[in-house]
Structures are given as C-alpha cells and as structure tokens.
Please model this.
Amino acid sequence: MTGLTRRGLVAGVGLGAGLGTGLSSALAGAADSLRDAPAGRDRLWLMRPDGSELRSRFRTGAGHDRTQILLLSWFMRDIRDAGRAVWMQPSLFDLLAGVQASMSAVHGSPLPVMVTSGYRTPEHNAALENAARNSMHLYGYAADIQVRGYPPRAVALAASFFSGGGIGLYDSFTHLDVWQRRTWSGRPAAG
Model:
C-alpha cells in the first residue's frame, strides 16, 4: 500500500473532502464521548508518546464503525514520515481492545495503550536498523505498544489470549500484528 495524506485517507474511504477539515473536531468529539467510559472490547483508548490520545468506540452491534476505523487509522499514521497513513486492518483494533480490556480488568481501572509505532512508510521502515524488510507495519497490520506500569512480557501475555497473529517481545515494547500466528523475542528497532 502506498502512504496517504489525511485528505487522501478520508477520500479513499468515501467520506468526502468535507470530513478532512473536520477530522480534528471528530477526534476531539470521539474523545469527549468516551472520556469516562470503562474499557471494553468495542472501544479503545490510545495514546502516543507526544501526548496525543484518542478514545473510540469502533464497534457497534452491526460490526466495525468505518468512521471510527478511519479515525483510528489516522491516529496510527507514520508521524515520522510526513504523517502518511493507510487504512489499518480492523482486526488489529479488536486485538488491541482485547489486550486493553483484560489489562484494565486486572488493573482495576481503564488503562490507555501507548502506541509507539503503527503504520510505517517503506522509507521509514528501510531506515530502521532491525526492522523486518516485509514488516506488517507496512500494510497496516501491526502496532508496537506499551501499557504504562506493566512490562512488555505482561502485555504479550494478555495478547496471547486474543491474538491469532504475531507477538514480538522486546525490551521496551510489545509488537502485535494480525498476520500469522508466531512469537519471537528480539532487540527493538531504532526509531
């Protein structure tokens, strides 16, 4: 997949150019609507290291909410490469929500998931010393995450109950993807 700008991402899912200018307000509205909502398998509370965050209820009784998947996909954009984005695989959000809900239940209160890497452009991925050439980050199938107060091993354990894909355990984060079932342990890629 090629990277998109915010306008291209919005147009690509058929929501029209009008939403492109209102994307920031839609993100804020999604956060306000779920500010006090407990963690659940139909919602996510994501943060980035820069302090940005998004709370989203991305599932309804009818399935995935395409507008919320769009907002989540934009949130998972490659912030190190001009904010380029792709449509993220909705099952990745199902996996992240399962991890978040289970860890929040054990913790006793909602915990945000810190996304350290979502989508990566081919250029960004190639510049990383230890990144896989065919990384699932390139296709919108992967996220590297942290849950504050818990080591990567605890996040990997929670993910093992929900994942049919890859779980990579690193020193400072856990890699999750929705491609093929596999596990590994390795050094984190720089960047």
About this structure: Residues 46 and 54 are 5 Å apart (CA to CA).
